[in-house]
Structure formats: C-alpha cells, structure tokens
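Exercise 7. Predict the joint structure of the components listed below.
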Amino acid sequence: MKNKEPLFSAQSLKLIKNPFNKENPITVQVLGICSALAVTAKMQPAVVMAISVTVVVALSNVICSLLRNTIPPRIRIIVQLVIVSLLVILVDQVLKAFVYDVSKQLSVFVSLIVTNCIVMGRIEAFALNNKPFPSLLDGIGNGLGYGMILLVVSFVRELFGSGTLWGYKVVPEWLYAHGYANNSLMIMPPMALIVVGLIVWFHRTRNKDLCE
Amino acid sequence: MFSNKYIFVYSTILVVLAAAILSIAAVALKPFQEKNIKIEKMQQLLACVGIESTPKNAESLYNKFFTQEVAVNAKGEIEDDYSNGRLQGNKRPFDLVVKEQLDKAKSGDQSAVMPVYICTKDGRKTYVVPVSGNGLWGGIWGNVALGEDLSTIVGVNFDHKGETPGLGAEITTKAFQQQFNGKTIFDNTTFKSVSVEKRADKNDPHAVDAISGGTITSQGVSSMLYDCLSFYIPYLNNNKTK
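Solution:
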C-alpha cells in the first residue's frame, strides 16, 4: 500500500510558494500582463482584482481537475471555457451586488478574467493532469503570485501618481506647497509596464538561473 | 476514446448546469444590485444640486432634500406625483427609464412621461431633469438642475458608457460640467437650450466650450440637451407663469 501523503507536504507547499518566486505568472511566465496594466492605477481595485482572479483560478482548477477524466479531449478547451466563464460571471455579479463602486472601476476587466492567460494556462498545464487538492493549491499560489505583483505595481503607481494609498492621502500638504507634484505619467498604463519591467529586472538579478 | 454521443450528452449537461447556476445567482443577487443602482442614481441627483454624498448616506440625504418627484407628459401636465413618501398616480417617477420614455416621445407616443425631481434646499427650489442621448461609442446621460426661474442652470452632471478616456470621457470632469453653471436655456421666452461649441464665447448664455478631440461626444451632449429639454418646455412654461 502506498503511504498517504500529508496534506501540506513539502511537495504541495512548493505549489503555493513557487508562483511567488521562480514561477511567478507575471514576471516569469508573462501571463496576465494586460489586466496588470489596466487595474493597477489604484490599490483598491488592484486588490479586488487579485482576489477575483485567485478565486477564479483556484475554483476553475479544482472543477477541471475533478472532471479531468470525464472531459473529452476533443472539446476540452470549450469545457474549460464554460467553467471559467461561469465562475467569472458569478464573481462579476457578486462584486456588482456587494462592492458596486469598485466593480464600476474594474468595469470590463472583471469579465476579461476569462481571457486572462493565467486561468486557462493553469488548467491546461496543471489541473488536467493533477488531483483536485494540488490543483487548488496551484490555483491559489498562482492567483496570489499574480496579486503580489499587482499590489507592488499599484502601490508604486498610487503613491507617486495620486499621492494616496488605499484612497488615503499620504503625501503631506507641505510637500505640495514646496513644489512637489503628482506624476501623472504614473496613472497612464505604460508606466505599469515600466514598473513591471523594473520588477522583472530586479527579480532576475537575484535569480541568475532565470536569465536565458 | 469518447464517442460522439458521449460528447453531445456531456456538453449538454454541462451547459444546462452552468445556465441553472447562473440564473439562480442572478435572481438571488438582483435585489442587492438594484439597490446599488438606485443609490448611484440618488448620488448623481444629489451631486447635480451640489450635495456631496457617500453610498451610505445617499438615501437619507435624498429623502431629505428631494421632497417631490413628478412625471410630466409632453403637454406639461403632471401624471404621477410622489411627494414626501406618498404616491399619487401609477408609478413612482424615480423608477422611470428615461431612455425608453424618450424613444416613445420621439415616435409620437402621447403616453410618454419624463420625471422631474424637485429639490428644496434652504427654502429654494431646484428642478432636476434627467437627460439621455448618444455619444460616439455608446450612450451618454446625466442630469440638469434648473434654478427657480426654470431657465438658469445651477448644476449638471454627465456620465457615459464608453467614451474615449481623455477625449469624449472628459464630459464627466468638473471642469467641463462647471461651464454650464449660470447658462440659461431660455432667451426671454424662446427655448434656446445650451449648445457645446468650438471656441464658445464665455459670455454667450447659451453655449459652452467643447472638448478638443471629443467632437462627436460634444455634439452628442448638445443634441441630448436640446432633445430632452425640449420635452419639458410645456411643463417649464406652465410653472413659470404661476
């Protein structure tokens, strides 16, 4: 008889940890860049987006993993798409019902989670060949790995672009009085790309093996 | 291998299941979503008369200041009246869908009615009328607040579905909307509306400056104001003479 693996073995913990570092969806796998540019001008929408993506990746991974032996390979992409869009619509409806103003800021980007490569990417690469529990961990790990980058980018952009954090003013008035101005380039999407680029740069200088 | 039959049955069950889950969710969450939309509408009306509100206090502020809502027809007669929580007529004017009513009015349907929200603040009345029209990519809408003379604009706000950020979407900015304050929609007794024009003269009481690069949206605002406000001419005239 095979020994039962403990619930949080080193193997399964790695599934959660790796996306934060050497398998980060944004900086290493280069997935989900589009939404990372779009929703990171302020921290609050970025966090809501990160949570939404985590929920969708985790649940769609679990569902696809549960169904993995019954899904006919010929229509598997369609099946995955139905599951993912089902979850995304649910998330969208819940946001509209309970955090209306944030859902208005996120506008189309919630529904565009469907096209977020992280979701389909993790289902194809992981959930279809693994058991539900590891798939859940993989989904949570990747969602949070994505969220971490969003958080860093939105922190930088909100601080320097609007002088606020989570909507609260942090740059003191006297600084403005002495000629400090918010950098409006920070609010533009290209700046998110530059910030992500800086993160990738920093990440790779610390992990030489990631460089091609 | 999976047979064709299996694939058909599998996909059918999957889709039906997904549809069922979504319908349940939609029905269960609808009351919450509708409440949010209602509160947003109240906030926009409050903003139009210069009252800042948060989603939490919007409803109580609205009930405090907007003491009367009326639905008026094309002849200027009041069909439904909702004041201080009591409704006279069929339907609360607040729940009217402006766009539907406008389409009705355009097709010559006499049953079209449009809402007027009457705000009483510091003993003065402000009449807020909703407007709705088309921009470049989709719908635009908003509210116009008229002072006691029923001609001078005391506040406007606009919103849009998907105008270009930085160009047409600028109609939602304070800078654009504040231009409307103090303009008049009547020249003595003739209806003039307020048009959005390129290089408008600041002293012209019926024109404001358009948005550079947002020409179609600017024209959309012009015609939206003209079309919607003309519906109210009989009502406004009736109330002026009083």
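Discussion. The two ends of chain B are 83 Å apart (CA to CA).
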